[in-house]
Amino acid sequence: MKSKKIKLFAFIISFLGMTTFAIAQKNYALDGKSAFSVSGTSTLHDWEMKSNSGTGTGNFTIANSKLTDIESLSINLLAESVKSEKKSMDKVAYKTLKTDTQKNIKYVLKSAQKVNETTWELTGTYTIAGVSKILKTTVKTAITKDVLNMQGSNKITFTEFGMKSPTAMLGTITTGEDLTVKFNLNFNL
């Protein structure tokens, strides 16, 4: 009889241990396959600048290959890692971003609300050109065998982050006020 109780007790402990492992909350680091971009318009043409140099961490709960909780998320992007196909445009962008004193673009999660199995509404603080704003971002998530992927975008303006719309060629080329910030984040599981 004692043998059966010991086996039952061992089975329960093993089961609880596996359950805890399957639903563990854990910190994950952003991998090098993540991508960031900002795009907009000008009187000459539409434009886009990109970076693959972000760093960051997230504390997530993943159970049965599904994202069930986002406890924290923090992203840091070196502002001068964002590049276009033209060095002259990059120079104007870095002046606009005030990279001489504001070296980083940052995001810090404040709260996360699950919408459905693959969609989350994140509220977080974006810091761009030294100005911080709390914005909501709708994020699509997917989990594969080795990666948690999060994709989303935000519409922002230059003025809400204390920046002036850049101009070029003595003001004959002007940039539109609206910007789209996009991200494709990958966290190795």
Topology overview:
Layout: H1 2-22, E1 25-29, E2 35-42, E3 47-51, E4 55-63, E5 66-78, H2 87-96, E6 104-116, E7 119-128, E8 131-143, E9 147-157, E10 167-168, E11 173-188
Antiparallel strand pairs: 1-4, 2-3, 2-11, 4-5, 5-6, 6-7, 7-8, 8-9, 9-11, 10-11
Write up this protein.
The chain is of the alpha+beta class. The chain is built from 2 helices and 11 strands. About 4% of the residues have low confidence. The protein is 16% helix and 56% strand. Strands 1, 2, 3, 4, 5, 6, 7, 8, 9, 10 and 11 form an 11-stranded antiparallel beta sheet that branches.
Name the helix and strand elements from N-terminus to C-terminus, one letter apiece: HEEEEEHEEEEEE
* Radius of gyration computed on alpha carbons: 22 Å
Could you tell me how far the N terminus lies from the C terminus, measured between alpha carbons in angstroms? 43 Å
How large a portion of the residues is in β-strands, by DSSP E?
Answer: over 45%
User: Which stretches are poorly predicted, pLDDT < 50 over at least 5 residues?
Assistant: 15-22
Largest sheet: 11 strands, antiparallel
The dominant shape is elongated
| Overall pLDDT metric | 89
Q: Treating each run of at least 4 consecutive H or I residues as one helix, how many helices?
A: 2
Q: Helix proportion of residues, in percent?
A: 10-25%
